[in-house]
Design brief:
- By secondary structure, the chain is of the alpha+beta class.
- It has helices at about 1-30, 100-135, and strands at about 50-55, 65-70, 80, 95.
- It has one domain.
- The chain has two helices and four strands; from the N terminus they run H-E-E-E-E-H.
- It is elongated.
- The mean pLDDT is about 95.
């Protein structure tokens, strides 16, 4: 039984770390949602996303998750006609970041809920371990 509880703790802790990265990347995307290039006709901020992969903890045998890497979103940059803007190209168009704030906020909310679920698993596993220890002391 105790190895199952430690496996649950291990798996949930990997989930906490992964969701922390997910929240950080989505927050960076929101923070840069209105950033444009420093040079005329240049590319603006490009949305970044985490890539998750399954991992096996050899000590406990628990399956968990980790962020394997981050990737850039390769979708097209929206453009806006604004010939007075410093980042405008020769035709007067400014490339805007490919960040959709509503999508990022929904992703942050989903990551927050997943983080809370993993935290609940850790708290419940810890309570069960403490209860088992109390019973053994009697």
């Amino acid at each position: 039984m105790s190895s199952d509880l430690f496996s649950a703790l291990t798996a949930a802790s990997t989930g906490l770390r992964a969701q922390t990265v997910r929240i950080r990347l989505a927050s960076e995307n929101v923070a840069n949602a209105n950033s444009t290039s420093d040079i005329p006709g240049g590319d603006p901020y490009q949305r970044r996303m985490p890539v998750f992969r399954e991992m096996l903890d050899r000590e406990t045998g628990a399956l968990g998750v980790q962020v394997a890497r981050t990737v850039d979103d390769l979708s097209e940059f929206p453009v806006r006609y604004d010939p007075e803007h410093p980042a405008a190209d020769a035709n007067g168009y400014v490339k805007l970041p490919n960040v959709k704030t509503l999508i990022e906020m929904a992703d942050i909310r989903d990551a927050q809920r997943t983080y809370e679920a993993n935290l609940s698993i850790i708290e419940n596993s810890r309570a069960m371990i403490n209860r088992a220890l109390d019973l053994l002391r009697r």
